[in-house]
Design goal:
With 222 residues, the protein is an alpha/beta fold. It is 38% helix and 42% strand. A six-stranded mixed β-sheet has the order 1-3-5-8-6-7. Strands 2-4 form a two-stranded parallel sheet. α1 packs antiparallel against α4, α2 runs antiparallel to α3 and α3 packs across α4.
């Protein structure tokens, strides 16, 4: 019998408690008020502005929308964070197990790896606000199969994969827009799955899972 199983079960129960607590608070507090609608609209518009290139305006809108949302429904924000964090840890453990993959939680995460070669390692990342621009044509894989889990509340994600890299992609956002290869989704509850034709037989492959509450996700296969 695997001695790690009891520890895994205890950890999973802890994360389920986080999700349960978040759901309890959310169901007891959520109310669709004009302030909520306006703040969510400003957050979505802020993400769009950042993606369109007017970053200063976008971040201002994000800040104002977030301030209104937090001020109006602080308990709701806390519940969403608890649910998202709990789901992140469960998903991370299911995917990576005890492999020693890097696991990070951040309030704000900004990364740009698109100018020089970089080492590609398995990673699970959760953040409240994430801005990532990663060029996988410059990536040097450290292992035959790399798994990346990118999750959080608000994300502006730009990823570029070479056509000859075997990749499996599962991307979802509750509010926002996504483009994965030639597939596009926008609005609410968006989800796209995409996989390279030669993924199953490739010697080196990348498995990518992206999930954000509000997001602008752009994943290109060059």
């Amino acid at each position: 019998m695997d001695s790690r199983q009891p520890n895994y079960n205890r950890g999973r129960n802890t994360y389920l408690v986080l999700i349960g607590a978040g759901l309890f608070v959310l169901l007891s507090k959520v109310v669709a008020t004009p302030a909520t609608v306006i703040s969510l609209f400003m957050v979505a518009l802020g993400v769009y502005c950042i993606r369109s290139g007017t970053r200063r305006k976008g971040y201002v809108l994000l800040g104002i929308g977030g301030f209104i949302l937090v001020g109006s429904h602080f308990a709701v924000i806390v519940s969403l964070v608890l649910i998202s964090l709990g789901y992140f840890y469960i998903k991370s453990k299911e995917i990576h197990g005890e492999t020693g993959a890097i696991q990070r939680t951040r309030l704000i995460e900004s990364q740009k790896r698109n100018k020089e070669a970089w080492i590609l390692r398995s990673l699970s990342l959760w953040c409240v606000i994430g801005e990532l621009s990663l060029d996988f044509t410059l990536a040097i894989p450290e292992e035959p199969e790399t798994t990346l889990v990118l999750q959080g509340m608000i994300g502006d994600i730009d990823l570029y994969f070479p056509e000859d890299m075997a990749v499996s992609i599962e991307s979802s956002v509750l509010f926002g827009q996504m483009r994965v290869g030639t597939e596009r989704e926008s609005g609410t509850m968006n989800k796209i799955r995409w996989q390279s034709p030669h993924y199953e037989t490739a010697d080196t492959k990348v498995k990518l899972i992206v999930s954000y509450l509000v997001g602008d996700i752009d994943i290109k296969v060059l």
